[in-house]
Amino acid sequence: MSKTNEADVAFIQALAELLDANDLTELEVKREYGDNDRLNVRVSRAKEAAPVMHVAAAAPAHAPAAAPAAVSDAAPASSDPSEDPNALSSPMVGTAYLAPEPGASQFVKVGDKVSEGQTVLIIEAMKTMNHIPAPKAGTVKRILVDDGTPVEYGAPLMIIE
């Protein structure tokens, strides 16, 4: 949208307040008003996080299944996974799913070998299913999220060594 109007400014301020009120690190909204009239807003606050790869692909809608995250005993529970250099961090705010659809088997389990680029989970954001690839080949050591749980930008999702 080329012109800024008071409604857009108020909308952006409301997004910033929502970001603070819910202790989020990032919000992104895209509005289409017409053929050549749109508003794209990304509100974020700085947070130290590992570099992440952004990949988005559409997939069918998905409901959460009740499957707890598996955690291996290889790393002590007291260590901070966000500081692990092998942590796969969330590239966006959304809901994490460990399987492609309800009732299906998980993309990966602890102990599975993965190849670089292999889908290891999905994050749903704004009704879009985003396949999250393994950043490198290795073995899944820990899965740090439960199926169907919300995740924030930069949150550790799993450890791949």
UniProtKB/TrEMBL annotation:
Key word Amino-acid biosynthesis present: no
Region (Disordered): 66-90
InterPro entries per record: AcCoA_biotinCC, Biotin_BS, Biotin_Carboxyl_Carrier/Decarb, Biotin_lipoyl, Single_hybrid_motif
Pathway membership, UniProt: Lipid metabolism; fatty acid biosynthesis
Keyword annotations: Biotin, Fatty acid biosynthesis, Fatty acid metabolism, Lipid biosynthesis, Lipid metabolism
SUPFAM superfamilies according to UniProt: Single hybrid motif
Low complexity: bias regions: 66-80
Residue ranges of domain Lipoyl-binding in the record: 85-161
Protein purpose: This protein is a component of the acetyl coenzyme A carboxylase complex; first, biotin carboxylase catalyzes the carboxylation of the carrier protein and then the transcarboxylase transfers the carboxyl group to form malonyl-CoA.
Protein name per Swiss-Prot or TrEMBL: Biotin carboxyl carrier protein of acetyl-CoA carboxylase
Name of the gene encoding the protein in the UniProt record: accB
